[in-house]
Design goal:
Elements: H1 2-11, H2 14-18, E1 28-32, H3 40-47, E2 52-57, H4 60-73, E3 78-82, E4 94-100, H5 109-119, E5 120-129, H6 135-145, E6 149-157, E7 160-170
Parallel strand pairs: 1-2, 1-4, 2-3, 4-5
Antiparallel strand pairs: 5-7, 6-7
Helix pairs in contact: 5-6
């Protein structure tokens, strides 16, 4: 799996995707389903020393890989969370949530989406990329779980729908 992620990241560099999202210095980010940290690690310099990146995954080996990379790179603003749904983060504490290439894997997405909604700030965004779900399926999955999040925009890159970033925000 690690080889696949390196291959994918070479042809579709995570930093190109992250630059499309409005990441500010001092932001708090949750990378839910972080895998080996393809997005968590490059997000750390973008949030700076006053920001924080939480890399969450269900797989202990993924968490160990992120921790290893964090140690090697001497990143002080990345924390890992081993979880299958409960992040144990405070309510309304996250500015941006990455849900990249994992939504289709959730056995019970409603519980996870409600947890993400709980930790997302009123002004925060949930950004989703899912190469197996089209835009309609992403929207229906989110809106079935919570009425608090609405699609704000969809940004497409060179690969169109395959790497589309769906940006959800809280209702005003």
């Amino acid at each position: 799996m690690s080889f696949f992620f390196k291959f994918r990241d070479f042809y579709c560099p995570p930093i190109k995707i992250l630059k499309q999202i409005n990441i500010q210095l001092g932001s708090h980010i949750l990378d839910y389903g972080c895998g080996s940290g393809s997005y968590s690690i490059p997000a750390a310099p973008l949030v700076g020393p006053t920001g924080k990146v939480y890399a969450a995954d269900i797989h202990p080996l993924a968490i160990l890989e992120v921790q290893k990379r964090v140690r090697i790179m001497e990143l002080r603003n990345v924390d890992t969370i081993l979880t299958d749904q409960d992040t144990k983060l405070p309510n309304a504490s996250i500015d941006i949530i990455f849900l990249f290439r994992v939504l289709h894997d959730f056995k019970n997405p409603d519980i996870i989406i409600r947890e993400l909604d709980r930790v997302l700030k009123r002004t925060g965004i949930l950004s989703i990329i899912d190469h197996k779900f089209d835009k309609g399926k992403v929207i229906s999955t989110i809106t079935r779980a919570t009425q608090n999040l609405i699609l704000r925009e969809t940004m497409t890159g060179n690969n169109k729908e395959k790497n589309a970033i769906h940006i959800f925000s809280k209702l005003p």
